[in-house]
Design a protein that fits this description.
By secondary structure, this protein is α/β, with parallel strands linked by helices. It contains ten helices and 14 strands. 40% of the residues lie in helices and 18% in strands.
Length: 322
């Protein structure tokens, strides 16, 4: 099977490409490299192009016999989506609609979508099940929720088979050291903390210390990026075998507070963080944990590498070398 991976030069995309290649899939990476990186391309064929251009997509699908698509390419910064919602709606919605249109035109019916826990908004129950109402509180999450509704309609009307994967907090790096997290700017907790411990960021700020949690800092569900990548592989195999559509959380159901992450990083690295506390950010919730039961039963998937110490160790190894 030939699989198109949009955004395959990004963080989660590159790790998924590695899993696909390991399992003998033919992989085509489609990326405009606006946020992706050539150093994260670990194999497959690379096509430079932009999802906002139907001509780029039409040329690609006309030249290649693509049988399935895994769609990572999107803008992902929650804060930026607040300040510039038009950018997020235009980019995330239009690019995906273009991709789906060309897929239908060429008869490609398998689609795996990179969604987000941001579709849930303020959780009404913890851990969050997939049937939880979708009430996103930022434009980034809203764009993902809108696309999930579009996929539901495309499944009904056109027979598109899809699995939408709602990530919680992706973290860590390839255990073999080939790939890792590389964003510019970096907005995620663990890489920012490790860059601080390496002396590259002079300040490390924690946003909020008055949450109703045991130590006052928010609790999140961290999942190793290789576990995420393996879930995409299993989702693709499920689509091939059963041609069924589904929505799944990808998380561990186990949470760690920001201060627990800091203390674990200090243990792994042997370095001490200089903490600076700031006010809460808009939309931050005290606790965000996934129910993983559906992913376990539907995909037979378990997050095997998502121990916090292992996550931080692999990320630390990557950042020391890069």
């Amino acid at each position: 099977m030939t699989v198109l991976v949009t955004g395959g030069a990004g963080y989660i995309g590159s790790h998924t490409v590695k899993e696909l290649l390991r399992n003998k899939y033919e992989v085509i990476i489609f990326d405009n490299f606006s946020t992706g990186h050539e150093k994260l391309v670990c194999g497959g064929r690379v096509v430079r192009g932009d999802l906002r251009s139907k001509d780029d997509l039409f040329c690609l699908f006309r030249q290649e016999r693509i049988e399935a698509v895994i769609h990572f390419a999107a803008l992902i910064q929650v804060g930026e989506s607040y300040s510039d919602p038009q950018k997020y709606y235009q980019h995330n919605l239009i690019s995906t609609l273009n991709l789906l249109e060309v897929m239908l035109q060429f008869g490609v019916k398998y689609f795996i979508f990179s969604s987000s826990a941001a579709v849930y908004g303020q959780p009404r129950e913890i851990p969050i099940p997939e049937h939880h109402p979708l009430e996103p509180i930022n434009p980034y999450g809203a764009s993902k929720a809108m696309l999930e509704r579009i996929l539901l309609d495309y499944n009904r009307a056109y027979g598109l088979k899809y699995i939408s994967l709602r990530y919680f907090n992706a973290a860590g790096a390839d255990p073999e050291g080939q790939l890792g997290e590389l964003h510019c700017p970096e907005t995620h907790l663990i890489p920012n903390l490790l860059l601080h411990l390496l002396g590259r960021n002079p300040e490390f700020r924690i946003f909020g210390q008055d949450f109703p949690t045991p130590d006052g800092t928010p609790i999140r569900d961290y999942i190793h990026v290789t576990d995420l990548a393996r879930a995409h592989l299993l989702a693709l195999q499920k689509l091939q075998a059963e041609e069924t559509s589904q929505v799944l959380n990808l998380g561990t159901g186990r949470g760690y507070s920001v201060l627990e992450v800091v203390r674990t990083a200090e243990k792994v690295t042997g370095k001490k963080a200089a903490l600076n506390f700031g006010p809460r950010r808009a939309g931050d919730v005290p606790v965000l944990l996934a129910s993983k039961d559906r992913a376990l039963s539907f995909l037979d998937w378990q997050p095997e590498l998502s121990d916090l110490e292992f996550i931080i160790q692999t990320a630390w190894d990557w950042h020391q070398k890069n």
